[in-house]
Design brief:
Elements: E1 2-3, E2 20-21, E3 28-29, H1 31-38, E4 43-44, E5 49-50, E6 55-61, E7 68-74, E8 79-86, E9 95-100, E10 106-111, E11 115-120, E12 132-140, E13 147-156, E14 193-198, E15 209-213, E16 219-224, E17 228-233
Parallel strand pairs: 5-7
Antiparallel strand pairs: 1-4, 2-3, 6-13, 7-12, 8-11, 8-13, 9-10, 9-12, 14-17, 15-16
Length: 234
């Protein structure tokens, strides 16, 4: 959607010395500069888009300095895994993701040449401690290159992309760059479970990683390995 530049919010209402805040860079415009900018035409601002549980949302940073915004709802104590993946030809575009609490404070940020990743859970440094609408912003890490990306999103305790695990039976899967697969199983308090996630085929740079969550969305255990990630819960 397009918003006229004069919709940028004033940070002071003093008519003799008012200033305007550039919402992307935090720069302060003088009144004269602001009036010049106002006649340059509208700016491109992407509307809020909801992330898809166990799904993918695609996006594009089409102009230098562009920022895209996405939202999801969560309860305090739940967990989310977010991957922002550059798609297409590898370029100088480095995806950067910033996660904001419902009250607007910055919760976590990450950037990478290929996959920017956020893992937020009850015992980690990134915790969802508020109930409400969380926002993520996606941009290039230095705001100087355009690029295409996709967002993978998994939200516990609701994730169930690949269905139920059955005791004594295996389940096959494949991971693309940034992909997150989720499975579920039933258990009663006091039961035991052994879970092995094994790389199949030729040994590659793929290191399987497994996360186990309680029914209330709190993290129980995690492991990774170059061939077999293993959890033993008893």
């Amino acid at each position: 959607m397009e918003l006229p530049l004069y919709s940028i919010k004033a940070v002071s209402t003093d008519c003799t010395n008012f200033k305007f805040l550039d919402f992307l860079k935090g720069r302060i415009f003088s009144p004269r500069l602001f009036l010049l900018l106002m006649f340059l035409g509208p700016v491109q601002v992407m509307a809020q888009v909801a992330l898809i549980q166990d799904g993918i949302v695609t996006g594009q940073i089409s102009t230098i300095g562009e920022t895209d915004e996405f939202v999801f709802n969560a309860n305090a104590g739940e967990a989310v895994h977010i991957r922002v993946v550059e798609t297409g030809v590898n370029t100088s575009f480095y995806p950067e993701v910033r996660l904001y609490n419902p009250n607007g404070t910055l919760l976590a940020t990450d950037y990478d040449s290929t996959v920017a990743a956020l893992d937020c859970f009850s015992t980690g440094s990134c915790k969802l401690q508020q109930t409400g609408t969380y926002r993520i912003l996606v941009t290039d890490d230095d705001d100087d290159y355009p690029g295409n990306y996709e967002i993978h999103f998994s939200h516990m305790p609701y994730a169930n992309e690949s269905g139920f695990l059955i005791s004594g039976q295996g389940a096959m899967g494949s991971i693309t760059t940034g992909d997150i697969d989720s499975f579920v199983f039933f258990a009663s308090a006091g039961d035991s479970a052994i879970i092995n996630v094994s790389e199949t085929g030729a040994n590659t740079s793929f290191y399987p990683e497994v996360w186990l969550y309680n029914p209330d969305g709190t993290r129980l255990a995690t492991d990774y390995d170059n061939t077999v990630a293993s959890l033993s819960c008893y």
